[in-house]
Amino acid sequence: MIDINEKICSYITKNWLIPWLKEDKSQNSFAKNHDVEESTVRKIKSDNTYRIPVETLYRICKARKLTLEQFFKLINE
After folding, report:
1. Is residue 38 within 8 Å of 31, Cβ to Cβ?
2. Are 41 and 27 in contact (CB under 8 A)?
3. Three-state SS for 13?
4. Distance CA 61, CA 36 (A)
């Protein structure tokens, strides 16, 4: 069974961060746009043991105009 934190971070990385970076935008701009620290973005992207706080996930979802409920439906599709 996949760890929920790993699933969340993987979804954010694959579906939001990588496309952002492919548009020649920086991790720092992603962080600012999503109301989190750049160090948090690094952890989401590369630390398989990162336990993402609900507050962080909430900020990222809010910036994406998603509720937490909508986000969890997305990662479970």
Report:
1. yes
2. yes
3. helix
4. 11
Cα Rg, the chain, nearest whole Å: 12
**Per-residue model confidence (pLDDT) at position 24:** 96
Name the residue type at position 45.
K
pLDDT in tens, 29-73: 999 999 999 999 999 999 878 999 999 999 999 999 999 999 999
CB 19 within 8 A of CB 33: no
H/E element, 55: helix 54-63
The CA distance from 47 to 42, in Å, is: 8
Structure-block tokens of residue 15: 């579906």
**SS3 category, 68:** helix
Residue type, 40: T
